[in-house]
Fold this sequence. Notes:
Oligomer: heterodimer
Strand order of the largest sheet of chain A: 6-7-8-3-9-10-12-11
Radius of gyration of chain A: 21 Å
Largest sheet of chain B: 8 strands, mixed
Distance between the termini of chain A: 53 Å
Strand content of chain B: 15-25%
CATH topology of the largest domain in chain B: Rossmann fold
Distance between the termini of chain B: 18 Å
Helix content of chain B: 25-40%
Number of domains of chain B: 2
Strand content of chain A: 15-25%
Strand order of the largest sheet of chain B: 6-7-8-3-9-10-12-11
CATH superfamily of the largest domain in chain B: P-loop containing nucleotide triphosphate hydrolases
Structural class of chain A: alpha/beta
Number of strands of chain B: 12
Bound molecules: adenosine-5'-triphosphate, magnesium ion
Number of helices of chain B: 11
Helix content of chain A: 25-40%
CATH class of the largest domain in chain B: Alpha Beta
Order of helices and strands of chain A: EEEHEEHEHHHHHEHEHEEHHHEE
Number of helices of chain A: 12
Amino acid sequence: MTRPRPLQTAGRPAEGPxxxxxxxxxxxxxxxxxVRAVDxxxxxxxxxxxxxxxxxxxxxxxxxxxxxxxxxxxxGVVRSGSIxxxxxxxxxxxxxxxxxxxxxxxxxVFQDPMTSLNPLMRVGEQIAExxxxxxxxxxxxxxxxxxxxxxxxxxxxxxxxxxQYPYELSGGMRQRVMIAIALACGPTALLADEPTTxxxxxxxxxILALLSEERRERNMTxxxxxxxxxxxxxxxxxxxxxxxxxxxxxxxxxxxxxxTRMPYTEALxxxxxxxxxxxxxxxxxxPGRPPDLVEPPPGCRFAARCAYARERCHxxxxxxxxxxxxxxxxxxxxxxxxxVEPVALRPADPAAVG
Amino acid sequence: MAGTGTAHxxxxxxxxxxxxxxxxxxxVGRTGLTVQAVSGISLDVxxxxxxxxxxxxxxxxxxxxxxxxxxxxxxxxxxxxxxVELTTLSGEALRRARTRMQMIFQDPISSLNPRRTVRDxxxxxxxxxxxxxxxxxxxxxxxxxxEVGIDPARAAESRAHQFSxxxxxxxxxxxxxxxxxxxLICDEPVSALDVSVQAQVINLLEDLKAAHGLTLLFIAxxxxxxxxxxxRVAVMYLGKLCxxxxxxxxxxxxxxxxxxxxxxxxxxxxxxxxxxxxxxxxEPPSPVLPPSGCRFHPRCPAATELCATTEPTMRPVGxxxxxxxHHPLVAGLT
Lengths: 354, 334
Ligand SMILES: Nc1ncnc2c1ncn2[C@@H]1O[C@H](COP(=O)(O)OP(=O)(O)OP(=O)(O)O)[C@@H](O)[C@H]1O
Ligand SMILES: [Mg+2]
């Protein structure tokens, strides 16, 4: 078999921190002002674990993943904080350092497979390219590996698919090709940005099963970006919930669902319809919309939409702290779920309609 | 034919929409071949009912919606709306019928005219149909905007791009209601919206349905959303219906293996729930060369010889549950 084994099996520890983020900020200079897309994220990702990044559109999930990869626009980006990958600082690392990590150490599946595949290149070449560049495989070796990879991601008749262009594939097939490319060099960590959002539910189930298998077999670390709480519940060990550029709750997955502390997480869980509820069950919608990241409100960024918010929430920003009864469960809230009664939202609030 | 038949159609006097044997064919490039995107669909919707139409991408859900509206003309079949056959109507008569039958779409921003103020966009149908005096028109539009949660004053001075996706969907809903339609066809109305906003819009549709006495056809791929809003559900696969029935029954005890596969594929938002193994591989095949017999047979764990050769027709399997399958998942029936 020509498939490379992951590097960590060659004398690397199977546990311990792999990616350490400390007060990571990624801001974009725009005409409207500075967009604080990621605004102070501290998070440690352990080797071999699957970490879900959840949150609504615009909460900064993609920008955070791209910040870790070092795949940000070259201009107009203001970055600070620290991102360590196996101890190596990446925030101000030269391009050559990042390049040496891409593919073998960390790989990314992008949110939109159509714009991230090269439309003019046959899919076989797109998978073979990193194998030849990063692993120094010969043309013939790379071809064998490519067929193996396409088989692994369950693409039927892979030898024929190699010769096709992205537009000739269905959305599900394209996403599988993206995953094959990302897995090609056996990455230590895979950052998968909404890998299944564009797919049908039956195909989503197959792709997620595939990623889990890959993770078990190779002790691969997975950062799974999604807004789907069902996906998070079934396929991650830990979850970080993002809101307005910040992590507002972080916990082992089971604990997050069993004992939700942050009102935003609770509101998110309640707002989704589930097939367990009878028809016409009234949904607990969250009023309003996420904050403007150019001029975020003072205090807690969720306060304007929060059913538990008090005066303090609009004035002082809570920081992410560990729960007194579970050191692995962190939340950023002055009045976590269960500590105060809900109050009516301020009626005059312009944020009341999303 | 597979997944055809009309056993599920009801004989009630409050049927608002009755569709029989709907077919549409498109040419495939210059190959001389044709593809049947919708292949013999029959449906009915009673007054005040919400019918959910679910299925995976490419199964023909949206095409069905357009065929009902006559935005696309069917190759065969009949569409009776409020007792009037639409497929033979044209011109003024069709436009008039369409005022009582409105449609909203997935992408709310691009379905609103970017050059007019949002208030004008909502008012336009009243002007075209000369409904009421200018003052009456204004009053109606402002009341509707307020009802969908949009500030009329802001709507009078802003254009669509100045509103969020959820707000634009509210605006298109307001526009769809100004002519007091009977039937609202919603094609993936919340799938482009964030979960929190999605819940707001679903609740709004439920409220408007009650307040305006609407009948809804709700087309979507999200099974949980469809269950939440529907009274009755039709499941579509590759241009055909495979199962139709009462919403709660169909979700509790799916009779078609495809419905079962869809339901089993949903990730349940509960880490403690037991794992459901994925029962089928692959994706729906192309409708250009659909499988013989039952179109689902190549992916079906229960398929036999019969399924490859003979197309099943709709038959009852319960009080209000109908399935087009030779081997339905119902005790005592094969
Ligand atoms: N290159 C850029 N320039 C300016 N602003 C940007 C840029 N990229 C992202 N943003 C902004 O950063 C914020 C966070 O965006 P991001 O794409 O990370 O959200 P997300 O959580 O991934 O959302 P979604 O669920 O829609 O994918 C948004 O307000 C977005 O508009
Ligand atoms: Mg994103």
